[in-house]
Every structure is written in C-alpha cells, then in structure tokens.
Amino acid sequence: MSSYPITIKAFGEQAILVQWPSEVNDSILEDIIQFTNFLKRKLEEKWEFVPSYNSLTIIGEANNLNLIEIRKSIIAFYKALDYTEKPVRYLWTLPVCYDSEFGLDLDEVSQNLNMTVSELIQSHSENEYTVYGIGFLPGFMYLGGLPKNLETTRKETPRLKVTKGAVGLAGKQTGIYPQESPGGWNIIGSCPVAIFNVNTEEPCFVSVGDKIKFEAISRATYDLHKIEAEVGIYKPKKVLLND
Fold first, then answer.
1. CA triplet 236, 152, 103: central angle to 5 degrees?
2. Cβ burial, residue 224 (10 Å; 0-12/13-18/19+)
3. Which CATH architecture has domain 90-240?
4. Which residues make beta-bridge pairs with 238?
5. Nearest-angstrom CA–CA distance, 60 and 86
6. Residues 180-222: pLDDT tens digits?
7. Alpha-carbon span 230 to 149, nearest angstrom
8. H helical segments located in 43-158
9. Which fold has domain 7-79?
C-alpha cells in the first residue's frame, strides 16, 4: 500500500511528472526509488526514469503516447507498490584533498562560518550525505544532509572555470564537479576520482539514493589516486546499506 499522496501530470508530449510532498528527506526519496524500480518491471514500453528529491520524471521513447491512459496506469501501479523489496543502495567513500591549492574558498568560507579551516574539513569529511539528484552536468551529484554549521551562500560572482573534481558547498548542499565548468559553489577541495566516465559500461557508478562520505587525504595520496583512477585501477570503497 502506498504511503504518500502523489500528483501525476503530463510533462510535455513525451513525459509524465510524478510529484511527492514538497519535502527533502530520505523516506520520500526511498519511496521514489522503490516506485521507479517497480515501474521498470511493470511498464512495457521503453521509458527513461529521472528520480530526484521529491519527483520522478518518466520520459517515453515511443511516438504518439497516450499520456492519459499511462497516467491511469501509474496511479494503479503506485497503489499496488510492494514495499517488501528494498532498493539496493550503497555508501561510497570518496577521497578529497583539502589543500589550499584546491580549496580556493576554504579561508573565506571558514571565516564566514566562524570556524577554523581544520574544523570545516573535519565537519565536512565526518558526515554522510544522500544523493538526492544527479544533473546539471553528467554525474554532478546533489548531496543533501550538509551539517547546519557548513551551510553557506553561493558565491556572488560565479567562476567562469571550475576544475574537474572540485568539491563545493552551496546552501544546504555539497557536491563534486565531474568536469570543468562555470560554477558558483564555494570550492573547498578536490576529488581525484572521476564520477562520470562515458567510456565505461556504467558511466556514473553512483545512483540517486546512495550515500557519500568523504575521506580527507594528503596531496601525495591525491596524486597517487589520480594516477590509479586514470589507468582504471582505482576502486572506490563501497558498503551495501541494505545489510
């Protein structure tokens, strides 16, 4: 039996938007992921599923979709959702070097938050974050669960160039830039591991609903992991959360 009131509406000519209550929490996200997995087994047509925060966008590949009938089917499927099968979720540990060379905004952010750089790094790296969405750039993870003492505003003037692997803070979130891009997040470190690789069978190894923990590393370890990642021998640490 379903546990949340949802709304379902057409989203253009080829998509359906399913919306949950406008809250950001792990329970709603898990409900979305369970329903996504359920629909993948039930829907006969080819669909693309985009879960995030409190919504699920379902995009059809076929032409002339009858969205009214599909909407009815989705309502029925949600009422029949089986909650006994939990989605597979992982806790990934990703290395981050917080050296000043990479942490371009470390000093400014720590001053604004009335804490030392060491306290900022410790708070950021000892917490676990939930992947609430992947977007903006391929592989860009929107990580929720930032400690309140690290909440900070975006930069007033975004940078035209943020390097690949940069770890940033913005509002109530943290994240890693998977490729070079303009950006307005406060940069506090760098991750040597590629989050998105178009040449692999699964380009982004992290999924919405997974959790992320950062491990503070030295510059020497950063250089080592970067080489290991580039030659394809680095394997991020992961723990199955369903155990």
1. 50
2. middle
3. Beta Barrel (2.40)
4. 92
5. 25
6. 999 999 999 999 999 998 888 788 999 999 999 999 999 999 9
7. 35
8. 67-79, 106-112, 117-125
9. Gyrase A; domain 2 (3.30.1360)
